[in-house]
Amino acid sequence: MFEFLAYPFMQRALIAGTVIGITCALIGVFVILQKMAFFANAIAHSALAGIAIGFFMGLNPMVTAVMFGIIIAVLISYLKSRSILSVDTIIGIFLPSSMALGVLIIGLLEGFRPDLISYLFGNILAVDRFYLYLSVSLGIIVMILLAVFFKKYMFITFDRELASIHGINVAAYDYLFIILLATTVIIGTRVVGIILISALIVIPAASSKNISSNFTQMVVYSVIFGFASSVLGLMSSYFLNLASGATIIMVSGAIFLITLILRPVLAK
Amino acid sequence: MDAPKALDINDLSVTLGGKRILQNITFSVDVGDFLIIIGPNGSGKTTLIKAVLGLVPSSGKISIFGKPANRVGLKGMVGYVPQKFEFDRTFPITVSEVLDIALGKELREPLKRKQRIGSVLGQVGMADYAHKKIGTLSGGQIQRVLIARAIANQPKIVFFDEPLAGVDIKGEKSFYELIRNLKEAQKLTVALISHDVTVVNLYADKVAALNRIMVAFGSPKDVLITQNMEKAYGQGFGIFKHKECLEKPQEELTQQDIERCKLFGE
Ligand SMILES: Nc1ncnc2c1ncn2[C@@H]1O[C@H](COP(=O)(O)OP(=O)(O)O)[C@@H](O)[C@H]1O
Ligand SMILES: [Mg+2]
């Protein structure tokens, strides 16, 4: 039953899928505790414009999308700190605007047009070598930085006031975090698509929160759930011949349901 | 030159949202002093502490142990218990993890860190709660944990903003004893906001009476006089007509006296 591992496309999908699944699950812990799920979703939607810009300028669309996503994320954060508008209002402006920009630029493209559906819903079985290297290296960089600054982010997430009193430059770490988040979200759109990527960030962490009685557990379970969703999701996609983005999210949704049921027993 | 003051505030003013909250505050506190800040609600006590800790912008000069009090300068020297600690009660983090993230890097070995955490939790009577999720504790228990966290780094100065809200009488008493011990053993400097005149008389070396401006500053006997209190709290402020609050020896105070000596109920 493991003959599928012999196909190079499947190997690439599994490697990229698991790296991204784990990275999303790790950063997702901080995303849900800082209530940034909607923010992550807005960054995901900016990917369309970022990809379109890449096609328009003849550059690698994944690279331009990561850069555009980071710009949008920084802009939203900057406006949040400078404006009287609440963050959900600011995101409510940026999300559809960047999406509209993407549709406009795609309309301007002559000749070859990107396959919209595959960007909206992902198509990891079709990823090339370049994407594999890009996603694995960026994913590993994100994980290393999160691991190095783990306690600082835990401190900032729990008590930002005291973190700042203890000499942590909270604003700088916030900006680093959203850059890491934007990078993760955008490379992840290739796996499950623009529409579904925020689920890959939110669901493993939320499932883990259901059953964790301390912070270490929350991180460990989340990573395990992210890993399991990617692997089981890709396998079901292969064997059942279904869209891989959808199967990955369905598996993580099933894990969420199980943790919800187990919650009264496990969470003390 | 003299040894640096523990806390030296020079011409501090704070404006928030276009409103002048504090004006021209100047005072200093010696190393090992117990400072109590008093003043009615809205007089700017919390704002004063936040300005010192760099949490709100201010003008003027603030130094802590001779160093300018910016974030980096304070590293590891300062403990703080806020008036209102707001956090997500569903946050999956244990009491021991809450203390660990705030514990400085000097204490490297995991075992030593664990011991320190256990010891400060013991000092506030929370040793049995190290592995409980903080969100499951009562308000008073959370306050105790925050007090433990504030002293865990063995800071040189601690700021307590009405730290005993929700803490029972027994906890209150052991809090002041704990602070007194730390003061003696480690020359800890303490700045505390309180409404309790008994506490001021019993423990304060210095009192700052605030009402947007510095109404009075000095030893408790000098500050707690009727004119100052009327300036701070307004005309008809009758509490200091109860002279026993100030003049009776502590051991002769009855429970009734103590009740009347409270500036206002918690
Ligand atoms: N961020 C802020 N913006 C505007 N006004 C504020 C802000 N924070 C506090 N204030 C005002 O400053 C005054 C002093 O508040 P505070 O320092 O909390 O008083 P206290 O601790 O003595 O009760 C209050 O009138 C309060 O409304
Ligand atoms: Mg206050």
Element layout with pairings:
The complex is a heterodimer of chains A (268) and B (266).
Chain A: H1 8-33, H2 37-57, H3 61-82, H4 87-108, H5 116-121, H6 129-148, H7 150-158, H8 160-165, H9 170-192, H10 197-211, H11 215-240, H12 244-266
Helix pairs in contact in A: 1-6, 1-9, 1-10, 1-11, 2-3, 2-4, 2-9, 2-10, 3-4, 3-9, 6-9, 9-10, 10-11, 10-12, 11-12
Chain B: E1 7-16, E2 19-29, E3 34-38, H1 45-52, E4 59-64, E5 67-68, H2 71-74, E6 78-81, H3 95-102, H4 110-123, H5 139-152, E7 157-161, H6 169-186, E8 189-193, H7 197-203, E9 206-211, E10 213-218, H8 220-223, H9 226-233, H10 244-247, H11 255-261
Parallel strand pairs in B: 3-8, 3-9, 6-7, 7-8
Antiparallel strand pairs in B: 1-2, 1-4, 4-5, 9-10
Question: How is this structure best described in words?
Answer:
The complex is a heterodimer of chains A (about 270) and B (about 270). By secondary structure, chain A is mainly alpha-helical. Chain A has one domain: ABC transporter involved in vitamin B12 uptake, BtuC (Orthogonal Bundle). In chain A, about 80% of the residues lie in helices and about 0% in strands. Chain A is globular and about 55 Å long. Chain A starts with 7 loop residues before the first helix and ends with a helix. Chain B has 2 domains: about 1-75 and about 155-170 and about 185-235, P-loop containing nucleotide triphosphate hydrolases (Rossmann fold, 3-Layer(aba) Sandwich), CATH 3.40.50.300; about 85-155, no CATH class. Chain B has helices spanning about 45-50, 70-75, 95-100, 110-125, 140-150, 170-185, 195-205, 220-225, 225-235, 245, 255-260, and strands at about 5-15, 20-30, 35-40, 60-65, 65-70, 80, 155-160, 190-195, 205-210, 215-220. In chain B, strands 6-7-8-3-9-10 form a 6-stranded mixed β-sheet, sandwiched between helices. Chain B has a 4-stranded antiparallel β-sheet with strand order 2-1-4-5, covered by helices on one side. In chain B, helix 3 (about 95-100) runs parallel beside helix 5 (about 140-150) and helix 4 packs across helix 5 (about 140-150). The longest helix of chain B is centred in the last third of the chain and has 18 residues, at about 170-185. Chain B is globular, with a radius of gyration of 19 Å. The relative contact order of chain B is 0.16. Chains A and B meet through helix 7, helix 8 and helix 11 of A and helix 2 and helix 3 of B.
